[in-house]
Amino acid sequence: MRHYDIPGCLDHQHSTNFEWREAGGGIQSLCFYLSVLDVIGPVDDKGTIHDYGCGMGDGIALIQAAIPHALCRGFDVDGERIAGARNRWPTIPFQIGNVATTGRKADIIMSIHTLEHVPNALSVVSRLRSLCKSLVIVYPDLTHEARGGHSLEALAADEFCEGVKEHATHMSHYVTARRYSHDEPLMLEGNNLFVLEGER
Length: 200
Description:
Blueprint: H1 18-22, H2 25-39, E1 48-52, H3 58-66, E2 71-76, H4 79-88, E3 94-96, E4 106-112, H5 121-129, E5 132-140, H6 152-156, H7 158-165, E6 168-178, E7 187-197
Helix pairs in contact: 2-3
C-alpha cells in the first residue's frame, strides 16, 4: 500500500462542514483522489494539475505529495474553504474559481464531484476538454440510491453518457457507503470515474 506524507489530512477540526466530515466525507474524497492517481498516467516535469471543487485542499495535497514535480493548484467557489485550504496547505496555490466558467489551461484538469452541481454538465465537460490534455471527472450515478439536490438526472441522460464515453481513455465504476447526516441511514452511492482525452 502506498503512503503519502500529508500530515493532518484527516484532522476533522479543519473541515468547514460538520455533517459532511462526520459522515466520512473527507475519507471518501481521499479515496476518489487515490483512484485518480491510478489512472492519470505520467505527468511531465512541471506539468500543471488543476483541481476544481478542491474544498479544503486535501485531495490536491495528496496529488502534490504523490507527484512532487507537478505544479498543482486548487480552485473552489467557496471562499471560506479556499481560506482554509491556504492555511492548511501553504505551499499549494488556492484560488476562488468556478468549474462552470473557468478559462484556465492545464495539462490535467480534475473535476471531482462538481458536475452534479452545474445545470449544463456536458457543455462544461466540452469546454474543460478544450483547456487540457487530460480531464478527470468523478460524478455520482443513479444506479444506487443517491443524494438529493443535485443535477443527477442530466448526468444519467444518454446524451451526457455518450458525449463522455466518446472521448474516454479510462472508465470505471465503484460504490461507496456513506451517511450524509446524523439522522439519515447509511446509503450506497455509485460513482463514475472517467479520464477524457483533452484537446490541447
